[in-house]
Structures
1.
Amino acid sequence: EVQLVESGGGLAQPGRSLRLSCAASGFNFDDHAFHWVRQAPGKGLEWVSGINQNGGGIAYADSVKGRFTISRDNAKNSLYLQMNSLRVEDTALYYCAKDFGAYIDSPDPDYWGQGTLVTVSS
Amino acid sequence: QSVLTQPPSVSAAPGQKVTISCSGSSSNIERKYVSWYQQVPGTAPKLLIYDDNKRPSGIPDRFSGSKSGTSATLGITGLQTGDEADYYCGTWDTSLSAGVFGGGTKLTVL
């Protein structure tokens, strides 16, 4: 059974940092690309970042470029999102999503975690 | 303002058919595959359609996808009350070099 479990969310002050993690199981982790997608309270989905199966291709939404860094550890079956210089508008539920394929430029997230809530407030 | 445009809401009676549109441009829908997601409030999104018109295993054939030019459409036949949810289209934008979603469409089954 495919499982994606996010962790690391919480309350942070503007300008501070958080690191999200996503532990994956039930499939061959290094065969698949991954995405982080967020959803602000009462709002729609927003793609945040993606990483190819070997980590060689990475992309970010303009809203987080230069502040967030996506990475993966295929040996640990884990995905990460380092979030620096947090802003109030980064407040959202952050989902880790496994892609059907190996590359992020044809995104087909077929399994999603339950999300981890990030709240940025002073 | 989302890169992909969806109607905010659609509604239809049980047993009827509904379509949800997703309008984009030559840098996204026209040249990249489109996927569709269903999100029941309080739960994670679920992939319904990928590569414009393919259904993952377990998704009933009441759900279908199509694409023409810069627009894509999700069709749902034999509507059930359990289909009430928010529906999102998604794809890749080659100009932005980023994933993009539509703003979402709330389906009400009257």
2.
Amino acid sequence: ETGVTQTPRHLVMGMTNKKSLKCEQHLGHNAMYWYKQSAKKPLELMFVYNFKEQTENNSVPSRFSPECPNSSHLFLHLHTLQPEDSALYLCASSQGSGNNYGYTFGSGTRLTVV
Amino acid sequence: AQSVTQLDSHVSVSEGTPVLLRCNYSSSYSPSLFWYVQHPNKGLQLLLKYTSAATLVKGINGFEAEFKKSETSFHLTKPSAHMSDAAEYFCVVSEGSGGYNKLIFGAGTRLAVHP
């Protein structure tokens, strides 16, 4: 257990479904991130939230909708996804500014779109 | 913009032999560099980090990495591989921005360890 908890661990959804991924951290970190990890591709940063405010949206399609109600929780709402959206979605958190802080990652949600 | 290049997508070693995973970085200023490991179906775990202190950085599980500015390299090494080291390894550079840091990941190197 890293301190960053993601649920569910696995999710299978149809292209017309609506589902949400949840991420929770109680490390006192102020920044939270969503990453997408697809086979044979580098990790792709999707969204960054710093003190609950979205500070980065890396050209992510609108079928992915993030929500950050407080510094400890981060959601990724999914609707009308495509099969190519199947991937491992990783949440991470970090503390502070500057370059000295690595991330603490959750174990990820393995998403399959059918 | 900062970036990292992992020079090998796959590395295969025998148990008990040395491990070398190569990484080169591109940065316009003194970077912070990290190595992360990902075991199958798991999230990423921090192995070690370089943040402008000692150039030789020791991490967990016997891994270490040396920052060489003249070569813009940050290669990961371990004297003796163990079967449990089989995983994917990511070299990462940090880009600070407005109160948080953004990590830029390399494409990863998959390490296989044979008996």
3.
Amino acid sequence: EVQLVESGGVVVQPGGSLRLSCAASGFTFDDYTMHWVRQAPGKGLEWVSLISWDGGSTYYADSVKGRFTISRDNSKNSLYLQMNSLRTEDTALYYCAKSSGVVITEGPFDYWGQGTLVTVSS
Amino acid sequence: EIVLTQSPATLSLSPGERATLSCRASQSVSSYLAWYQQKPGQAPRLLIYDASNRATGIPARFSGSGSGTDFTLTISSLEPEDFAVYYCQQRSNWPPRFTFGPGTKVDIK
């Protein structure tokens, strides 16, 4: 059974930093592109970032480019999101999601974690 | 940047009725469109990919159609568990980007 478990969400002040983690199991982690998607309270879904199977390619939404860094450790079956210079508008539930494909633009998101809540507030 | 528009914003129907949800793209996305269902307090669930393919385990009452800029998700006969928010999503190849529509809420009439 595929499982994605996010952690690391807390309350942080504007300008602060945070690192989210996603532990994956039930599939061959290093076969797939992985994503972070966020959802502000009561709002829709926003794609944040993706990383290729080997970590060699990363892409970001314009709203987080230059502030967030996605990474992965295939030896630990783990995905990460380093979030710097946090803003109040970054407040959201952050989901990690598995792509159904290897190619970075291939496939929809076929499995999602339950999310970890990041609150940016003074 | 491709923008997705979903209509209606809210669809009020009774169990057993047919639901028709629309997703329109600001420019052609070929058939690279997916649909997700999200219930309160839950993560999204993939329903349809590449416009018309049902994901694993998705009941046959869910179907998708369309290509280019106009897409439809149809639920042939609503079950109580189908009342939820539905999002469409597209992907673009370069630069790699994934965009979600604003969602359609299907609620009980």
4.
Amino acid sequence: ETEMTQSPVTLSATPGERATLSCRASQAVSTYVEWYQQKPGQAPRPLIYGASTRATGVPARFSGSGSGTEFTLTISSLQSEDFAVYYCQQYYVWPRTFGQGTKVEAK
Amino acid sequence: QVQLQESGPGLVKPSETLSLTCSVSGGSIKNYYWGWIRQPPGKGLEWIGWIYYTGTTKYSPALESRVTFSLDTPNNQLSLKLISVTAADTAVYYCARLGHFDEGRGRYSPDSWGQGTLVTVSS
């Protein structure tokens, strides 16, 4: 099973700041990585497919990059509605596996 | 716009069977893959598996000895059964439509999710 490790566990930031979230795979997964946003009591919302392609309706301030084992989700200027938990997930091999999540909270 | 709604008992006793239904409205289950994902309270997400509208299934190796998916196409529903449950199966269970096709990678991914239903395993 491919393990996905996210860092940091918690990121404290203020609106307007740039946020950088990292995800590392235990083995190479090419660009088969997705990012999801989850708010309390809600289902995950797809943000990024294929490591860097935004899902429909996702604002341009969200961007993804990386390949192989290292991936990054960047929020260029945090908005109040962006405070949430973010998960990366590989879909290169079965079973698909998620990272443990990064919580982006207001400082 | 497709909508998914999970339903089932919120409380299941240890060693018994967990049964959930996902009702799909605003679209057909035909021609799609459908996934089940779960999330223990306060923890991360775990894939249980997926089912294609033809009935083809794929299960997580960690759960495949205990889980079964099925379809009720006329009623636009899918179902999950998990036998011999323990406290470790306590989670919010989500169904999702794998409606996004990644052409470059030949993979389908979730584009619509249900709100999830909490199932607690306890005596």
